[in-house]
Amino acid sequence: MKTTRILAIAAAASVAMAASAQARDQIRIVGSSTVFPFSTTVAEQFGKTTDFKTPVVESTGSGGGLKLFCGGVGVQHPDITNASRRIKKSEVELCAKNGVDKITEVKIGFDGIVMANSKASKQMSITLKQLWLALAKDVPANADGSQLKPNPYRMWNEIDASLPAKKIEVLGPPPTSGTRDAFVELAMEGGCKAFPGIKAMGKKKAKAVCHGIREDGVFIEAGENDVLIIQKLVANPNAFGIFGFSFLDSNADKIQGSIVDGTAPEFETIAGGQYPVSRSMFFYVKNAHVGVVPGIKEYVAEFTAEKAWGPDGYLADKGLIPLPDTDRKAVAKSAISFSPLSM
Known about the structure:
- The protein is 40% helix and 17% strand.
- The chain has 15 helices and 13 strands.
């Protein structure tokens, strides 16, 4: 009995040690590569100016981050996930299925999705229709698009004589990326709508055609590392890359954004809604972790403070395009009170 008692005590001690090892005193953040620079900047500022540890921020892509975030409640799961698109209904349902039933949504500002190239080459001016024809898996075989064929275009000028006589080569984000989701919805679908025959196919079929990106090597999935894409553009002046405006803004000495439908990707055109490939950015907080993992409340307050996300805040220097004044006040109030998400 004495031996059994000793073993039981040892087992209990082992469980206690395991539980202690699992406890976390550092915020863990995952998600969008586009929101990553903003989140990292806030995390670093938070670590310098408070008694809390600097949060760990990982770039996993919006879809990948939401999958991790919705995996469950407990310190083995992330506390916050960044997203360069709004959470989907299916993701909310996945969260609820795994016990993550109270989420706070924080809309942080706007971003534009750019197609950029090296400054060693001429700046591209392109329409959404031409862009879709360059990257779509299947393209119209007749004028209205009611008949389709595999994309035959290998050169930009095969699409339109006004485009360069150069090989189409575009580096872009993978399917797990919020940038990819927003790009197909805003740019690809926007260009596809120019063909009435595709719209007549019905919503489900039309969406599949509009969102389908070619898989013949013309579009190259370059991962979640936007910095690596920029390095490749500098090395190859004939290539284009797709990523968020903040990366263009911070590398304006090396690369330039293409003019889309007559509008250049600039701070003012994105904030004013003139640039056609603009989107909102978010982060999501797991309310069950607030008060359990130290610092979440304070991190959210730091991110939504005017000194951070306001027009003259330190995130504006990183390329964040702020929400209008009234919207920022409303979002900040909802964020710091951890109001549950309502779709």
